[in-house]
Write a structure and sequence with these properties.
By secondary structure, the protein is α/β, with parallel strands linked by helices. The chain has 15 helices and 14 strands. The strands form 3 sheets. Strands 3-2-1-4-7-14 form a 6-stranded mixed sheet, with helices on both faces. Strands 8-13-12-9-10-11 form a 6-stranded mixed sheet, with helices on both faces. A two-stranded antiparallel sheet has the order 5-6. The structure holds adenosine-5'-triphosphate. Pfam families: Glucokinase.
Length: 339
């Protein structure tokens, strides 16, 4: 019998929820999809609090709110990693696991693993206008290619390319492109970062730890001692106006993100718009809109006019990735591990 047919019969009879997860370098977010589009028991657990993915899964499923539902029938998780085989080692922390072994251990009929930004790209068509905030001008072309990037623990990149069936989401490791400075201040940041990394990728600077590195570089440039700030400290002290170097670091961060977003737009031909996710930009609120991001986005010499037509959107939804993980799980044919 054809595997797709088996799948659809099984899906029709599905009596139990699907487990969805979005696992970054810092946070593991879980939810139960109890009916299409209906999420229950959304919880965020710290990755650092668990030795393995399986431990975090067990802890989530043991929460009274999760245990009140039937055991999940199937599951899909988005991870901040490339996915290209059964064994997954996470780049930004210590978890590693076999997809098939986890499927068997938890008794999932299907268990899928997808890159987190590919999943977020698949979520974009499902986001309501209220879950987005446009920064600057431009108008999305209908069915135009879409670019996506987001700074969090790392720098995720993906996009959506129109296809006959709807959209194809891109597998990308675009956060690891080489950093290109576009101002004297950024040249100073690059020189500082070279002392710590032989290759300074965009992610080395456009991420939580990158924001701290930019802060340290600018403190040195100003002849001031750097404090042991966390990324959250740098953002809070910048927004409150208490620390001029922190404010400069956030400003520099936004401008660098403008360069990389503009690079993504011209590389993909993303006339459908550029979307910005990740944990950092939404925390900057209106300070991001007032930063040099959009000016820098359009600052592409002879292509300034082309960039000016492309809109840029901040994703403001709290858990935007789940919609993409759920859509991907629904669309994946076959029983067993999905990669
Ligand atoms: N107020 C804050 N609270 C928590 N984290 C913050 C805050 N401000 C900045 N950050 C930084 O945001 C990053 C976490 O971002 P995010 O929530 O996107 O995590 P993640 O999904 O685990 O990351 P990724 O998907 O990039 O691996 C960390 O580097 C953290 O230091």
């Amino acid at each position: 019998m054809h595997a797709d047919f088996l799948m659809s019969r099984a899906a029709e009879a599905r009596p139990r929820p699907s487990l969805l997860a979005d696992i970054g370098g810092t946070n593991a977010r879980f939810a139960l999809e109890v009916a299409p589009g209906q999420l229950e028991c959304i919880r965020v657990l710290p990755c650092a609090g668990f030795a393995t993915l399986q431990d975090a899964l067990r802890a989530y499923l043991a929460l009274p709110e999760a245990a009140a539902w039937e055991t999940p029938w199937d599951a899909a998780i988005a991870v901040a990693n490339p996915v290209n085989g059964d064994l997954l080692r996470m780049t930004n922390h210590h978890w590693q696991f076999s997809i098939e072994a986890v499927r068997r251990e938890f008794g999932f009929a299907r268990f899928g693993v997808i890159n987190d930004f590919k999943a977020l790209a698949l979520a974009l068509p499902h986001l309501a206008p209220g879950n987005l905030r446009q920064v600057g001008g431009g108008q999305a072309a209908d069915a135009g290619t879409i670019g996506l990037l987001g700074a969090g623990t790392g720098l995720g990149v993906s996009g959506l390319v129109p296809s006959k069936g709807g959209w194809e989401a891109l597998d990308s490791e675009g956060g690891h492109v080489s950093f290109a400075p576009a101002s004297e201040r950024e040249i100073a940041v690059l020189r500082f970062a070279w002392r710590e990394f032989p290759h300074v990728s965009a992610e080395r600077l456009m991420s939580g730890s990158g924001l701290v590195l930019v802060y340290r570089a600018l403190a040195e440039r100003a002849g001031l001692p750097a404090q042991a700030h966390s990324p959250a400290d740098v953002i809070a002290l910048a927004l409150s106006g208490e620390c001029a170097v922190c404010a400069g670091a956030v400003d520099c961060f936004c401008e660098m993100l403008g360069t990389i977003a503009g690079n993504l737009a011209v590389t993909l031909g993303a006339i459908g718009g550029i979307y910005i996710g990740g944990g950092i930009v939404p925390r900057l609120g209106s300070a991001f809109d007032g930063s040099g991001f959009r000016t820098r986005f359009e600052q592409k010499g002879r292509f300034a006019g082309y960039l000016a037509t492309i809109p840029t959107f901040v994703i403001t939804a709290e858990y935007p990735c789940f919609a993409g993980v759920a859509a991907w799980l629904r669309s994946s044919a076959g029983v067993g591990s999905i990669m």
